[in-house]
Design a protein that fits this description.
449 residues, Glucose Oxidase, domain 1, 2 domains
C-alpha cells in the first residue's frame, strides 16, 4: 500500500458527543457522529487514496491521460461505496501540453534565467502551423495592475497584483508577452493559471512564471536608467477541443427532504509540475468522507452529493457543474468546498453571510475538539464555490491550516511526503460530520450577491 508521511499528530480520543441540533433528535445523531469518528480514526484509506493519486497517477492536468485515468479510478472507488455515481464533462476549447520555456536577459546583463515554466494554456512563441521557433523579444515594463499602454512590450507582474483565471478582458492588451513573479524560489520552480480566458482558450500572448529571485532581479534592472530587454521562447502543443471528466456521486436521502441536495465538492485535477498532492489531499478527504457516510448505518435526511471538479487549475471551479445543473440548483440547499492544501482543518469560511453563523456553529459543534474552532466570515482564497454562490446557492469553504503542501501547489515540490496522514483523517471525519449535520438541520437562506 502506498503511504503518506510517517509524521503524526496525537489523535483526539473518541468522545461522546452531545448538544446536537437539527431535525433529528440528539439520540439519533450521537451514534452516527461516534461511528463516523471511530471509523475515520481506525482507517488508513485517505492516505492510501492520496498515495494512488500522487505516486500512482502523478499530475492530473486537465486533458491528460493521467487525468482521464484518475477520473475512471475515482468512479470505481465511489461505486464501491454503493453511491449513485456518474461521470459528467466540461468542454475545453483546446487541449494543451507543456514544452520548454526559455527566458533570457538581452540587456543590460545577458543571462538565461533558471527554472522558468509557462503558464498552463500559455500561447507558444513558435508558429502554430509550421512549428518554426519564433522567440519574442522586447522592452520590459513593470505592472502593479492592468495596463493598456504596453503594446509590443513584455510585462512583469506579481500574482497578487492581477487576479488570474477567467476574465472578460486581458489586463495587458497588446503586450508581446507576460512574465509572472511566482513568489516561489527557483529551486522548486512554479507554474500556475494565467490564461485570463474561459474554457481553455489560451491568452493572446505567451505567459511564463519566474522564480521570485529572478523577478526581483528584473525589477532592480528596470528601476535603473538602462532599458531592460528580454527574449522569450515558449514551446507548447495546442490540441483539439477536449471533454474534461468530472465525477458526481449521490448518497440518497430519506424522508420528506430527500430531494434536497447538500453539495460537497473538491478538485481532483492538478498542475503538471509535481504530483498534485495539494489537490489530491482534497480529493482523498472527499472520498474518505463519502466512505464514512456510506457506512454510517443510516441514510441522511437530505441527499448528499459529492462532486470532484476536473478543471480547477484553470480557474473554472464549479462553473461547469453550475451550468450543467442549472435546472436543479433550487434543490441545492447548502454545500461545502474542500480546497487544495492537505493541512489540518480549522473551520469554515462563511463568505460574509453573517446570518449563517448560528447554523454554522451548530454544524461544527461536534468537531471543535478536533481543532475546528474558526467559524468566521472570511471569503477564503479558493474560487471553487463562486459560481454556485453567484446563483444563490449557500456554499461555504472548508478552512485548512497553511501546511507545507499548500505553499508548494503548482511546483515540482507538490508531492505527498508533505501531507500528514493524521490531518487527512481529521479532515475526513470533520467533513463527514458537518455534511451529515447540514443534511439533518435547518437549511440556510439563499445567497444575495
Amino acid at each position: 500500500m502506498l503511504r503518506v508521511a510517517r509524521r503524526t499528530r496525537c489523535l483526539p480520543t473518541v468522545l461522546a458527543l452531545t448538544g446536537w441540533a437539527g431535525s433529528l433528535s440528539a439520540q439519533d445523531l450521537d451514534p452516527i457522529a461516534e461511528r463516523i469518528r471511530s471509523n475515520a480514526f481506525a482507517s488508513q484509506q485517505a492516505a492510501a487514496t492520496l498515495g494512488t493519486l500522487t505516486d500512482g497517477f502523478g499530475h492530473r492536468l486537465p486533458g491528460s491521460e493521467a487525468h482521464r485515468a484518475a477520473a475512471a479510478w475515482l468512479v470505481d472507488r465511489l461505486n464501491r461505496y454503493r453511491l449513485k455515481v456518474r461521470e459528467e464533462t466540461i468542454e475545453l476549447a483546446q487541449g494543451w501540453q507543456r514544452g520548454r520555456a526559455v527566458v533570457e536577459i538581452i540587456e543590460p546583463a545577458p543571462r538565461r534565467l533558471p527554472a522558468c515554466f509557462a503558464s498552463v494554456w500559455s500561447l507558444p512563441t513558435h508558429d502554430l502551423e509550421t512549428g518554426e521557433a519564433r522567440p519574442v523579444a522586447g522592452e520590459l515594463v513593470l505592472a502593479d495592475g492592468p495596463r493598456d499602454d504596453v503594446d509590443g512590450r513584455i510585462v512583469l507582474v506579481d500574482t497578487s497584483a492581477v487576479p488570474f483565471g477567467a476574465r472578460a478582458e486581458h489586463p495587458f492588451p497588446g503586450a508581446a508577452a507576460v512574465l509572472v513573479d511566482s513568489g516561489r524560489p527557483w529551486a522548486v520552480g512554479a507554474t500556475g493559471c494565467a490564461t485570463w480566458a474561459a474554457s481553455g482558450i489560451p491568452a493572446p500572448m505567451p505567459t511564463v512564471f519566474l522564480p521570485h529571485t529572478e523577478a526581483t532581479r528584473l525589477r532592480r534592472f528596470a528601476g535603473g536608467d538602462t532599458e531592460v530587454r528580454i527574449a522569450i521562447d515558449v514551446a507548447a502543443t495546442l490540441g483539439e477541443a477536449v471533454a474534461i471528466p468530472e465525477v458526481v456521486a449521490d448518497l440518497p436521502g430519506e424522508g420528506e427532504h430527500a430531494d434536497e441536495i447538500v453539495w460537497i465538492a473538491a478538485p481532483f485535477d492538478s498542475f503538471d509540475l509535481g504530483d498534485g498532492a495539494a489537490t489530491g489531499a482534497a480529493t482523498a478527504t472527499l472520498l474518505e468522507a463519502a466512505r464514512l457516510l456510506s457506512i454510517a448505518g443510516k441514510k441522511p435526511a437530505r441527499t448528499i452529493r459529492f462532486v470532484l471538479l476536473g478543471a480547477s487549475c484553470l480557474g473554472l471551479g464549479s462553473a461547469g457543474y453550475a451550468a450543467r445543473h442549472a435546472e436543479e440548483l433550487d434543490r441545492h440547499v447548502t454545500g461545502l468546498v474542500i480546497p487544495a492544501g492537505g493541512g489540518a482543518p480549522r473551520g469554515l469560511g462563511l463568505a460574509l453571510q453573517t446570518e449563517t453563523l448560528p447554523l454554522a456553529e451548530q454544524w461544527f459543534a461536534p468537531v471543535t475538539d478536533l481543532g475546528l474552532t474558526d467559524v468566521g466570515f472570511r471569503t477564503g482564497e479558493t474560487d471553487l464555490p463562486v459560481a454556485m454562490q453567484d446563483l444563490g446557492v449557500p456554499v461555504f469553504e472548508f478552512l485548512i491550516s497553511g501546511a507545507e503542501v499548500a505553499l508548494v501547489e503548482g511546483t515540482r515540490a507538490d508531492t505527498l511526503d508533505r501531507v500528514l496522514a493524521d490531518d487527512l483523517r481529521i479532515a475526513a471525519c470533520a467533513v463527514a460530520t458537518v455534511a451529515w449535520r447540514m443534511a439533518a438541520g435547518e437549511a440556510p437562506g439563499r445567497f444575495q450577491r
